[in-house]
Structure formats: C-alpha cells, structure tokens
C-alpha cells in the first residue's frame, strides 16, 4: 500500500541513510556482534553524516528540523539492518537530546550537545534498577545536595550504550518515600570520579549493543547538571516517553517488514516436493496474513507519526502503537523463522538473529502489560 | 526399579540438574556405565545383544521411574545410537549386523549420528542427492549432509544415499552405515541459536564403507528410513508428560517466588499450561495403550509430535513472561547437553539461563523430526484421509 506520510525531502534523507548503511555499517556489522558493541568510528561516521543531530538545534551543531518524520526514516532504515542499531542510535539521538535541549542548563547544553551531534560523545539513559523496572516509583539511586553539587549513590541496570556512554542521564531519588514524585534527572559525565561500569550483559539478542550495569559511588555532579526541575523527573520522563514509544513502534514494524521481505525471497527460492515452499497454500495464505497485518499496522503507525509531527500524539495512542507493533513483530518473526525450516534455527541466518533480537520489544520501554495498563486506565477502568 | 535407583544413586540425589555442568557430565559418564552393567542402557533389547529384554509395559515403568528421579538420558549420542539405529538394526538388520554393531553401541565404542537432512532436502527427504556407487566390495559415497546433531561426537553415521539415480525418488535410496574416521569424511560445526554448536555439516568425498553395510535392501532404504523416523518420533509418549510436568512444577515454584503468581493474567496462562500437560498425559496414555497392544508407532505419532512441540513453545514463552525483565539476561547454570532438546535437567536451579536456553531449544521443536507443517500434512492425509 502506498504510504502518504513522507514527502520528497524525507525520501532524499532516506537515500542518504541507506548509502550510509551500505558504506559504513554493512561491511562491519558482523564484527560488532562479535565485539559486543558499536565502535567509536561508527558514531563519528554517523555524526559526519548528520544522523545524530536530528533533535539538536543548528546553534549546537545539529540539524534539528522540528519534523519527527526524519527520525522515523532514520529508525526504519537502521531497523532494516538489525534491532540493536536503531536502539543504540535512538537512545543517543532521539531520546536523550530532547531532555538536554528543553530542560538542561545552558552550561550542559553548550558543553554536550555539539559533541553528541558529532558522535565524539555517546549518550545513555539510566532509569532501570535491579529493583525498579516497570515501577519507576521504586527507584532507589539517591542524589543528596552537597554544597553546590549533588552526590549520587546507587546502581542501574540494562542500560543501552552503558559500556561506551560519555554522558548518562540518570533518574535519581531526591525525596525519600515520595514514589514517582521524588525523582530528579541529572546529566552525569562518565569521567566523574565514583562512576563505574559493570560487565557487558549476556543478552538473549542484540549482541551489537553494549548493554551494561552502572554503579554510582559518591558521584558528585554540579547543581547545574540537574535536568529540569527538582522532584519533577518523573513528569519530565512522562512528557518524552510517547516519542520513545513511537520510535519503538516505527522500529518494530520496519524490522518485521524487512525480515518478511527476506523470508519471502527465501520461500520463493527454497524448494521442497518440487515447488517453492512459499507456493504451498498453507504458506501462501500465511504470507497473505502476514503482509496484511503489516500493512494494516503500518497505516496506524503512520497516522501516529503524522500526529506526533503535529504535536498531537497522545500517550495512550503511543502506547497502543508500541505494544501492538511489538506483538505483530514477534508473531511475524516467529512465522518467518518457521518458514526457514532448520536454517531458521542457525545463527548464521539473519532470521535466527532477528528472532532473538526482537524478543525484548515486548518488554523494554514499557512492557506490553504496562501499555495495556495505560490504555485500560484511559478507558476509565 | 525404585530399589535399583535407591541402591545406585547417592542418598541426597535431587536430579542431575542439581550438579554443575562439569559434575553433571562426569555423572552422566558413570551413570551410563551403571546402566550398561545392569542391561538397562537398552532395556527393550533382547539379552543376547546386551539389553534387559523387558516387556513393553516394563519398559514404560523403567522410563517413568528414570524420568521421575531425573537421571540423564541420551548420553553419548545414545538417542541416535540406541533409539534410532540400534532399534532399526533389530528390526531390519542381518544377524551379522546385529552381532557386530549392537554390542559396540552399548559398550560406547561406536557413537552414531544421523545423516538424513541435506542442504536441498529436509522436509522433502526423498529429494536427497548424496550418491553412493558400488566399486567392487565397497560403496563410494559423495555428497553433503547438514544439521547433523552431535556429529562432532560421533564415529559412525547412518547415511541415506541415492543408490539408483534412475529410479523414482523413493525407490532409489539405501541406508548405509559409514565410519566417520576416514579421509573422505569431513565434519564442520554450525552454531545454533541457543549458542551451542551441536550441529554440523558432514561432507563426503569418495568416502567408503563395506558393501554389506546396507540396512535392509539396496534401493529399499526409504522403508527403513521411515521405521527409524517412527522411533525418533514415537518412543516418548510415556516420558514426555513426566518431563514436562516436572518442568511446569518448577515454573509454578518460580511464579510463587517472584510474585508472578499474583498476576491474574499470568495465573490464567499457568492454569492453561497445566491443562496442556494433563491433556498430553492422556494422549500419551492412549498411544501407550496401542503400543502395549503391539501396534508400532503409526501416523498418530504426528499428533503427539505436533502437540508437545507446540505446547513447549507456549510454556517456555510463559516462563519468559514470568521472569519478566530477568528474561533479558542470561544468568546462572545453563542446561547441559545430557537431556537433549527438551526440558532442562531435573533439579536444575530456577535461573534465567535455564529458562532462556530451554525457550530457545523449544523453538527448534516444531522444525526437527518433521516440521509442524509436515505433521499436519500427515494428519490430514493419513489420519483424516483428505486428498493429497
Ligand atoms: C447469501 C448469499 C448470496 C449470494 N448471492 C449471489 C448472487 O446474487 N449472484 C451470484 O452469482 N452468486 C451469489 N452467491 C454465491 C457466492 O458468490 C458463492 O457462494 C461463492 O462464490 C462461493 O462459491 P461456492 O458456494 O461454490 O463455494 P466453493 O467454491 O465450493 O467453496 C467451498 C469452500 O472451499 C474454499 N475454496 C475454494 N477454492 C479454494 C482454493 N483455491 N483454495 C482454498 N480454498 C478454496 C472456499 O473458500 C470455501 O470455503 C451468494 C452466496 C450467498 C451465501
Ligand atoms: C535442532 C535440530 C536438530 C536437527 N538434527 C538433525 C540430525 O541430527 N540429522 C538430520 O539428518 N537432520 C537434523 N535436523 C534437520 C531437520 O530434520 C530439518 O531441518 C527439517 O526436516 C526441515 O527441513 P529443512 O530445514 O530443509 O526445511 P524445508 O524443508 O526447506 O522447509 C522450509 C519450510 O517449508 C515448510 N514446508 C516444507 N514442505 C511443506 C509442505 N509440503 N507444505 C507446507 N509447508 C511445507 C516447512 O514446514 C518449513 O516451514 C535438525 C534440525 C534442527 C532444527
């Protein structure tokens, strides 16, 4: 089905991203899986190409267009490679910068935004803790005033870009026993004494991303490194979560679409009993079912992208897009794996890795259950 | 059997899963010897070939008791050696073949793997293109097999090869017994999704085996191959429900410990899984009843294969949801290879590594030993008599 969301400017940008992927990503991406992380050379190349500054004003070296559709195009093209790339780049370029641009002090903005847009510095977002995932109100990492600084103590886990990040946006507790109302955001430079990183976590999928544990032991950050207002960290996060969830939805769907295209090719070339395996009616109907689901889902996600571009996307509609695309993606990839037969179970085939990569999309950035909770609450239940 | 197990197992035995990977491997080696000495390694085989000559009902009792206490099975390629080729030789082999091969399987001298699938022939097995030609007293074999489980641990491979290229697909195939320790056989490992490389490609370049190493008739291998697949698909009716029930009990324990059991949606699915495993038990009992009446495993094995493989994917998926964010990171004891391809070892700790790895392994269940699509085709054609 023809999509009507993107115009010529976006398609030109899409071609530029594709060219970047072809030149700077595809030749190395298998090595990154072995090394379990993206090298700095990748970030610098992405910065040179102008891919990291979509949320950063020109005054800070970015290319902010005020048009989320460019972000969406970037996510779609990276998702065609794997899930780790849009995740790592998304955190760095799509999720962290708005907090700095809209809420941070001039000092933090001028110190960090230019380096984030060139890729000289990599950003991470640290909310989750061993004891606080879906329930962010349980965050225990504390930030206590100490002269003109805050002193941060605690630990974070499952942090994307955690092993390489130079700047980490941290949610910490500034008022004890106040649940979500006692959280504040801080920008923490990774070279601050007392900051430490744990091991790279051994994940089910996405080996190209360096998910890590982070430790804070009397980490002192200047008060000017507080982001937004004291004790309003949760509110700030709620403001920007819809964009994160919409990006997740765009990524989920683009990843599934790419793998379906590749599976279709496989099922056309692979023969059994004298026919392409896709030609058996059971499989032909399965494909028909899959592409229908993708197209119908795409229509909804595209509407959300347009709404967000106009600043009208509601948190509830973003929640719907996030859980539904995660579900569709997981179901569709499972069919794709099955259609590959034994090859589908072997890591040297892209579908095996894609299947493992996708398992997390029903959990991260707000699990499917939490999304349904948001939607259910909105129904007055 | 209970007396035997009480006498042979340590007093504090909680299942092989309670041992760490190295200790589990060491135990498995010792346990195989114990079984061998008591004739329980191949309980169904006649005693003249080193078995225990048990009746079908006795075999079921033994299998149940072993599954209940969680001792390892399928050690050292025994699934291929004993269950598949051993049983097939008993059915089709010449007296010389039985005398020669069966004792060597039990002693552990010969360890087998299965050379069926090829890059171009999986579901459509009869489309295989590995060739074997007679050259005097020897077969000369050329071609390639793939997805050969445990091939790197084996020294013999049973190979389906085309011996009459001009005959219709099903009529020109023979089952050959081929030693792997020869220059013409090369094994290359493949890494699978759960991170292990139990799989291999096996290349044959002018590989040789003696002329008499054919099971059944020359060009009559298709029938033999199907008997063997029956053993691959059929034997588990009694033990699978026990394994899966033990596994589900572990999941219940996990859900209670981490609070997931309080979540009404997860409770629903836990109850559903319980129903699933109970239905499997009754299905197993009815297959068993037919087996005890002397019927060989037939097309109804397709129902059982389809059912347990899909059940297991659902239940391990549920386990990941019970683990919630813990399911993202592999932590703890990984399942060993002593209980291949199904549940984790009995007594294994309730770690994320256990469930994540089991979930990945369960993903292959609807592919190997005949994909779900092929099982449904068998059910449609053979059980329902729908037109082909
Ligand atoms: C209330 C009603 C009003 C109607 N009004 C009109 C009318 O005004 N004028 C008119 O001309 N007709 C009319 N029809 C007929 C209608 O168009 C046919 O019933 C329809 O095309 C199906 O054909 P069939 O009944 O011969 O079913 P069949 O073609 O016999 O189909 C039987 C089943 O087989 C399936 N099937 C068929 N081919 C395949 C395939 N290749 N692969 C997989 N599955 C397949 C079908 O999906 C169906 O489930 C009407 C039917 C109804 C029920
Ligand atoms: C864990 C594991 C262990 C294995 N161990 C061994 C081993 O030790 N030895 C060995 O020889 N092999 C082994 N195999 C291979 C296994 O038997 C094959 O992968 C399986 O038979 C499927 O064949 P294929 O991979 O060629 O898939 P294909 O036959 O190419 O199938 C691709 C897809 O098409 C579908 N399809 C095929 N025909 C039809 C049809 N008529 N109608 C509808 N759909 C159809 C299939 O269901 C599948 O979804 C193993 C595989 C796995 C995953």
TrEMBL record, chain A:
| Keywords for this protein | FAD, Flavoprotein, Oxidoreductase
> Acyl-CoA oxidase/dehydrogenase middle domain location, by residue?
124-219
State whether keyword Flavoprotein applies.
yes
Please indicate which superkingdom the organism of origin belongs to.
Bacteria
SUPFAM superfamilies reported in the protein's UniProt record: Acyl-CoA dehydrogenase C-terminal domain-like, Acyl-CoA dehydrogenase NM domain-like
Q: Name one GO molecular function term.
A: acyl-CoA dehydrogenase activity
**Acyl-CoA dehydrogenase/oxidase N-terminal domain span:** 8-120
Q: Which Pfam families match?
A: Acyl-CoA_dh_1 (PF00441), Acyl-CoA_dh_M (PF02770), Acyl-CoA_dh_N (PF02771)
Specify the Acyl-CoA dehydrogenase/oxidase C-terminal domain's residue ranges.
231-379
Q: Which residues form a coiled coil?
A: none
Q: Name the needed cofactors.
A: FAD
- Check the record and name the InterPro entries matching this protein: Acyl-CoA_DH_CS, Acyl-CoA_Oxase/DH_mid-dom, Acyl-CoA_Oxase/DH_mid-dom_sf, AcylCo_DH-like_C, AcylCo_DH/oxidase_C, AcylCoA_DH/ox_N, AcylCoA_DH/ox_N_sf, AcylCoA_DH/oxidase_NM_dom_sf
Q: Give the record's family classification.
A: Belongs to the acyl-CoA dehydrogenase family.
Protein's UniProt name: Acyl-CoA dehydrogenase
- Source organism of this protein record: Thermomonospora echinospora
UniProtKB/TrEMBL annotation, chain B:
Which PANTHER family is this protein grouped with? ACYL-COA DEHYDROGENASE (PTHR43292), ACYL-COA DEHYDROGENASE FADE29 (PTHR43292:SF3)
Q: What does the similarity note say?
A: Belongs to the acyl-CoA dehydrogenase family.
Every copy of the Acyl-CoA dehydrogenase/oxidase C-terminal domain together lies at 219-383
Family annotation (Gene3D superfamilies)? Acyl-CoA dehydrogenase/oxidase, N-terminal domain, Butyryl-CoA Dehydrogenase, subunit A, domain 2, Butyryl-CoA Dehydrogenase, subunit A, domain 3
Q: Which residues form the signal peptide?
A: none
> Which sequence ranges are marked TM in the entry?
none
Residue span, Acyl-CoA dehydrogenase/oxidase N-terminal domain = 2-109
Q: Spell out the molecular function terms from Gene Ontology.
A: flavin adenine dinucleotide binding; oxidoreductase activity, acting on the CH-CH group of donors
- The reply on keyword Oxidoreductase is yes
For this entry, the protein name equals Acyl-CoA dehydrogenase
Record's keyword annotation contains Oxidoreductase = yes
Q: Provide this UniProt record's keywords sorted from A to Z.
A: FAD, Flavoprotein, Oxidoreductase
Extract the InterPro entries matched here.
Answer: Acyl-CoA_Oxase/DH_mid-dom (IPR006091), Acyl-CoA_Oxase/DH_mid-dom_sf (IPR046373), AcylCo_DH-like_C (IPR036250), AcylCo_DH/oxidase_C (IPR009075), AcylCoA_DH/ox_N (IPR013786), AcylCoA_DH/ox_N_sf (IPR037069), AcylCoA_DH/oxidase_NM_dom_sf (IPR009100), Mycobact_Acyl-CoA_DH (IPR052161)
Which terms in the GO cellular component ontology are assigned? plasma membrane
Ranges for domain Acyl-CoA oxidase/dehydrogenase middle come to 113-206
The coenzyme or cofactor needed here is: FAD
Question: Whose protein is this, by species?
Answer: Thermomonospora echinospora
């Amino acid at each position: 089905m023809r999509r009507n969301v993107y115009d010529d400017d976006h398609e030109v940008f899409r071609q530029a991203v594709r060219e970047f992927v072809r030149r700077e990503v595809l030749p190395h991406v298998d090595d990154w899986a072995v090394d379990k992380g993206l090298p700095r050379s990748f970030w610098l190349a992405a910065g040179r190409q102008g891919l990291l500054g979509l949320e950063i004003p020109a005054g800070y070296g970015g290319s902010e267009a005020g048009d989320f559709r460019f972000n969406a195009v970037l996510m779609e093209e990276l998702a065609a490679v794997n899930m780790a790339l849009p995740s790592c780049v998304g955190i760095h370029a799509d999720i962290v910068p708005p907090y700095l641009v809209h809420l941070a002090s001039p000092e933090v903005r001028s110190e960090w935004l230019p380096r984030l847009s060139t890729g000289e510095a990599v950003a991470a977002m640290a909310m989750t803790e061993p004891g606080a995932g879906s329930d962010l109100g349980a965050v225990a990492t504390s930030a206590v005033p100490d002269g003109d600084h805050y002193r941060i103590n605690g630990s974070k886990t499952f942090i994307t870009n955690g092993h390489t990040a130079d700047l980490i946006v941290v949610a910490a507790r500034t008022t004890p026993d106040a649940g979500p109302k006692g959280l504040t955001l801080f920008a923490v430079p990774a070279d601050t004494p007392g900051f430490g990183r744990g091991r790279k976590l051994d994940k089910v999928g996405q080996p190209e991303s360096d998910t890590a544990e982070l430790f804070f032991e009397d980490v002192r950050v200047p008060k000017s490194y507080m982001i937004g207002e004291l004790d309003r960290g949760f509110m700030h996060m709620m403001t920007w979560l819809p964009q994160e969830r919409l990006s997740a939805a765009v990524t989920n769907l683009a990843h599934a679409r790419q793998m379906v295209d590749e599976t279709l090719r496989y099922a056309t070339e692979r023969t059994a009993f004298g026919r392409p395996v896709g030609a058996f009616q059971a499989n032909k109907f399965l494909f028909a079912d899959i592409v229908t689901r993708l197209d119908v889902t795409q229509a909804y996600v595209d509407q959300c992208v347009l709404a967000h571009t106009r600043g009208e996307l509601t948190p509830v509609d973003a929640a719907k897009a996030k859980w539904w695309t995660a579900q569709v993606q997981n179901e569709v990839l499972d069919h794709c794996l099955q259609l590959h037969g034994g090859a589908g179970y072997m890591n040297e085939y892209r579908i095996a890795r894609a299947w493992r990569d996708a398992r997390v999309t029903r959990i991260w950035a707000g699990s499917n259950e939490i999304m349904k909770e948001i939607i259910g609450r909105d129904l007055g239940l | 059997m209970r007396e035997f197990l009480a006498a042979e197992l340590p007093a504090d035995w909680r299942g092989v899963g309670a041992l760490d990977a190295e200790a589990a491997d060491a135990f498995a080696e010792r346990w195989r010897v114990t079984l061998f000495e008591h004739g329980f390694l191949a309980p169904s085989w006649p005693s003249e070939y080193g078995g225990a000559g048990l009746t079908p009902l006795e075999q079921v009792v033994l299998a149940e008791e072993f599954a209940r206490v969680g001792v390892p099975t399928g050690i050292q390629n025994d699934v291929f050696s004993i269950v598949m080729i051993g049983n097939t030789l008993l059915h089709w082999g010449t007296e010389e073949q039985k005398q020669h091969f069966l004792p060597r399987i039990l002693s552990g001298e010969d360890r087998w793997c299965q050379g069926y699938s090829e890059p171009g022939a999986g579901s459509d097995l009869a489309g295989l293109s590995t060739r074997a030609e007679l050259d005097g007293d020897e077969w000369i074999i050329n071609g390639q097999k793939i997805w050969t489980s445990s091939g790197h641990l084996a020294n013999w491979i049973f190979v389906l090869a085309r011996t009459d290229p001009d005959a219709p697909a099903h009529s020109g195939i023979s089952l050959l017994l081929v030693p792997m320790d020869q220059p013409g056989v090369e094994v290359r490992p493949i890494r699978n999704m759960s991170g292990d490389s139990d799989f291999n490609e096996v290349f044959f370049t002018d590989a040789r085996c003696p002329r008499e190493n054919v099971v059944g008739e020359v060009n009559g291998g298709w029938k033999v191959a199907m008997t063997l697949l029956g053993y691959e698909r059929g034997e588990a009716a009694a033990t699978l429900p026990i394994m899966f029930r033990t596994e589900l009990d572990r999941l219940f324990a996990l859900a209670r410990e981490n609070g997931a059991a309080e979540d009404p949606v997860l409770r629903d699915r836990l109850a559903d899984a319980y129903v699933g495993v109970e239905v499997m038990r009754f299905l197993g009992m009815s297959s068993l009843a037919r087996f005890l009446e002397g019927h060989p495993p037939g097309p109804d094995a397709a129902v059982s294969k389809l059912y347990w493989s899909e059940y297991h994917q659902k239940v391990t998926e549920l386990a990941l949801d019970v683990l919630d964010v813990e399911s993202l990171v592999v932590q703890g004891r990984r399942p060993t290879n002593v209980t291949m391809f199904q549940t984790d070892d009995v007594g294994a700790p309730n770690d994320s590594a256990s469930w994540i790895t089991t979930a990945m392994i369960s993903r292959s269940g609807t592919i190997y030993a005949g994909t779900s699509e092929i099982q449904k085709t068998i059910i449609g054609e053979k059980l329902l008599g729908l037109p082909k």
